[in-house]
Amino acid sequence: MITPPENYEILIEKYRPKKFDDIIGQDKVVKRLKRYVASKNLPNLLFTGPAGVGKTTSALTLAKELYGKSYADNFKEINASDERGINVVRGIVKSYAEAQSIGDIKFKIIFLDEADALTNDAQSALRRTMEKYTASCRFVLSCNYQSKLIEPIQSRCSVFRFKKIPSQLIIDQCKYVCDQEKISIDNQALEAISYLAEGDCRKAINFIDTSLTTKQDDSKSITIEDIYEISSYIEPKSIIDIIKKALSREFFVSKLLLDNLLLDGISAEDILKQMTTRVMEMNIEPKMIIDIVCIIGETHWRISEGENESIAFHHMIANLVKLGSEQK
């Protein structure tokens, strides 16, 4: 295994965008934020969207572009999932909001990351704080699920919806990182990273970082096998084989393939999620796809209700075999 040097900087931080033009896949968001910087004024903002698409980076970049060298004195980041109760609003948030800004800009910024993790009491207190300190402070909230925020907070913010990063942009970004780090990576590995990242650029770069630091030798090369080894994902062929063998009425072969995945430490949730994804890509009748998804969904429900994983999976394979027999 490669031992990182003492001054090693993880790749997601090393290649975090430093200015708006470096942010990928969010052109409309960046365009609007640039207007706020140009006017030296902004309302309260709500960044909503999936993980790893640039919400935190956009908030940091906004502060750096707006305040310049004094951004650290006028920008405070709080992770609401760590401190989610009412005390964080009454204490940390309130005390920072009522203090005056430093420099030409008349307000400071509080960035509440994962704001949808705040309790309802904390959100109610935040709403009052946002009302009271409008002159001295602006709030930037980020969340994965906008619906978890109370309506009074949503109505006080200008909403920015972040979308998943397109696959090609993730591949281009990974190529750039690998070129800069002098890492050899083949196209299959890049395609696998893009697919497994599911629009999350942070996850994609983490795959590169983890692949290097967990290798048994000192080579700076990454293959598709490396990516699947360090991820909780399964090679597509393995999942498709389980489904195909069951539909071909080869119960024991399908069962053995699935049991081997469980023995390898793959979680039931990951297996079911990837089965759902892969069945959508199979060249079979739409009605059969629907029937298979229903069987997978029932299995997920059984496991979530406490049924033994092995029994639930064997029941699922039996149902797939039965479905294959009916189609024959």
What features would you describe in this structure?
- The protein is an alpha/beta fold.
- The protein has three domains: 26-161, Rossmann fold; 167-230, Helicase, Ruva Protein, domain 3, CATH 1.10.8.60; 236-327, Up-down Bundle (Zinc Finger, Delta Prime, domain 3).
- It has 16 helices and seven strands.
- The strands form two sheets. Strands 2-3-4-1-5 form a five-stranded parallel sheet.
- Helix 5 links the parallel strand 2 and strand 3.
- Helix 8 (167-181) packs across helix 9 (187-197) and helix 10 packs across helix 11 (224-230).
- The chain is globular, with a radius of gyration of 24 Å.
- The termini are far apart.
- The model has no long low-confidence stretch (mean pLDDT 88).
Keyphrases for this structure?
Rossmann fold, alpha/beta, 328 residues, Helicase, Ruva Protein, domain 3, two-stranded parallel sheet, 16 helices, five-stranded parallel β-sheet, Zinc Finger, Delta Prime, domain 3, 7 strands
The percent of residues in helical segments reads 55-70%
Fourth-tier CATH superfamily name of the largest domain: P-loop containing nucleotide triphosphate hydrolases
**What shape does the CA trace take?**
globular
* Discrete helix count: 16
Measured between the Cα atoms of the first and last residue, the distance is 51 Å
Largest beta sheet: what is the strand line-up? 2-3-4-1-5
Class by SSE composition: alpha/beta
The overall average pLDDT, rounded, is 88
What is the gyration radius calculated from CA atoms? 24 Å
| CATH architectural grouping of the largest domain | 3-Layer(aba) Sandwich
